[in-house]
Design a protein that fits this description.
Helices cover 62% and strands 12% of the residues. Strands 1-2-3-4 form a four-stranded antiparallel sheet, covered by helices on one side. A hairpin with a 6-residue loop joins strand 2 and strand 3.
Amino acid sequence: MQFEEQLTLLQQQYAELQTLRANVSAAEASLAEIEAVKERDRTEEQKAELEALPARIEELTAARDQAFDAAQDALANFLNVALNDFPDHPATVSGLNIYADEAMLIADETVARAGDYKKAIDQLGSALSYYESLDLPPYKPLADKLAELTEMRFITQERFDQVKNGMTMDEVKEIAGVPYYQNIQVDEKRGVETWLYRKGGEGGAAAIYFKKKTGKVYNKAFDAIKTKVVED
């Protein structure tokens, strides 16, 4: 198979993977939407869909995962040839961009799942190093994502001040970032959940406090902890 044909096949596989990802997300969103409706208010159509969706999601997820594995194998094989035999070929850059796009997805998942900005930044740095090794300009979406996560890794006074009482956890994540999973503390007796955010060179951590019953902010303290906290 010609080198350019390998790229075309790779691009087709990743287009199919993106479609499957979108299908899974759409099915999960439909399920969540129906579950949000009180049982007594659900239509017969919604009840039937509610019964069918879990199996459909499982089927779509399996297809997505299979497509992901196949695309990853194809990408690895392509880059092995591209980086060693065709470092100056335009197709190599296209393949690297696909690799970078995947690295960004994985980095976002790493942050969303565990608040591990350090790991996510390292993943993006590894992708960026391939461009540097070939003396290529950085892929702008990759460079932008790396800058975004680097900025969000530590809390700043400016972002902290934007957090207000009554905000939901999702609203706080948008402003302050996702807390590292080991820096989430739950006091069941008091009904309070505390998110600790590491500060930069000065060390220590800021704290944002939520009432577990409402899931909303009720207090915060920028200098809550002056000593070292768990590092992400």
